[in-house]
């Protein structure tokens, strides 16, 4: 039992690192680079690398930060119709929506992975960052979202078959 508890804590720490600490550090880097870019543009000679780095940091922050929003159910929802129906209809809407997302992400996973691996030969123009490194957060995003959406589907299917809705 102790080993299982230790594995859960390690897993939780890993999730925190990927979903919280990496996006936080990358956003800090984005912000500092953005300030340097503004200062250099208006007071000294403009630089070319800050634009490239801020774009890369934005992609990493948005994708990995979106994972934390899904974990906490803090993402933006338009729920006027959802809020107006009974619990059984809400369950059906969640099941249909999550099933569509799960299917779409499953379909996108291999081609996305294939593209990221393929882009390994190309490097960014200024900083020479390998493009597979730049695009790799999308694969992490897909895999983690598949896990979270799969868990949501499992919970809702159990509710459906138990009649808890």
Overview of the structural elements:
It contains five helices and no strands. With 165 residues, it is an all-alpha fold. α1 (2-43) packs antiparallel against α2, α2 packs parallel to α5 (131-162) and α4 (87-118) packs antiparallel against α5. The longest helix is centred in the N-terminal third of the chain and has 42 residues, at 2-43.
List its salient traits.
single chain, 165 residues, mainly alpha, elongated
Total strands: the figure is: 0
Sheet having the most strands? none
How much strand content do the residues show? under 5%
Q: How would you describe the oligomerization state of the chains in this entry?
A: single chain
Q: Class by helix and strand content?
A: mainly alpha
Mean pLDDT equals: 89
Mind sketching the topology for me?
Elements: H1 2-43, H2 49-71, H3 80-84, H4 87-118, H5 131-162
Task: Summarize it.
It contains five helices and no strands.
